[in-house]
Amino acid sequence: MKIGEKVIHLPTCSSTNDVLRELAEQGEEDGVVVLAEEQTAGRGTKGRSWFSPRGKGLYLSVLLRPERESALFPLMAGVAVAEAIAEEYSLWVRLRWPNDLIWEAKKLGGILCESSFAGRKLSYVIIGIGLNLNQLEKDFPVPLRKTAVSLKMILQRDFLPEFVAGKIFTSLSRWYNIFQAGGDEQILKTVETLNVFQPGDEIAFTSKQGQVRGQFLGLDRYGRLVVRAQDIIRTFTSGEVLSPVSCLAPGEEGES
Q1: Could you tell me the pTM of the whole model?
Q2: Residues contacting residue 22 through CB under 8 Å, at least 6 positions apart
Q3: Residue 208: pLDDT above 70?
Q4: Which end of the chain is flanked by fewer CB atoms within 10 Å, N or C?
């Protein structure tokens, strides 16, 4: 089944990731999508809420059953969304490792990937995609107004979630095929061209071990962040880059 060949439309749900997880456990196939008009308990990274008002954004989750686990899934999805937007709207969207979609230092969308295993064997991966479509600045909660943006704010028009989703499905299918064929290097090279910070940049990074400041050296073959801090090279599989400071407001309570 191709990604998006089967789309389950919901007027509302707590979280498309949660709904799709239940369907995955019931045996749904690779490529099925859950798309909701609103989420009442949408999630971002680090347990943050994802602002998901009815009719304002794109809220969807994709079920994949790949043969191998990889930290590249959020990066692959980010590349696919950025490519779809560029091809359809000639809009240059960039990525902020590992899962943010950025336009001119503001957050346009994000990716939330969740994996499930049976013992050591990967059962499935759910890729959640949230994209701000039709919000005006006043539609965002006050804490998000300085850091969030929508396609409508950029291009001064309204967007149909189903249409945008269709473009993303096409792009994501292509990149998923590249991943399945072992094209990790191609994914990583594309991420490097889209990343908001480049090798040599000084970054502040927060992880489970606390905040780290150092020089960004790049991504390794697994998509992990490589940083030189106090003459020690450290590698991270997850976390949040806090700078360039213009990209994120520290203390932000929600996501959009």
Answers
A1: 0.90
A2: none
A3: yes
A4: N
Phi and psi torsions of 22, nearest 5°? -65, -40
> Of residues 23 and 229, which shows the higher confidence score?
23
Give the closest residue to 207 by CA, choosing from 31, 45, 18. Answer: 45
Express each pLDDT in 83-123 by its tens digit. Answer: 999 999 999 999 999 889 999 999 999 999 999 998 989 99
pLDDT reported for residue 245: 37
Given a cut of 60, whether residue 247 has pLDDT beyond it is: no
Q: What is the pLDDT of residue 46?
A: 54
CA distance linking residue 161 with residue 72, whole number of Å: 25
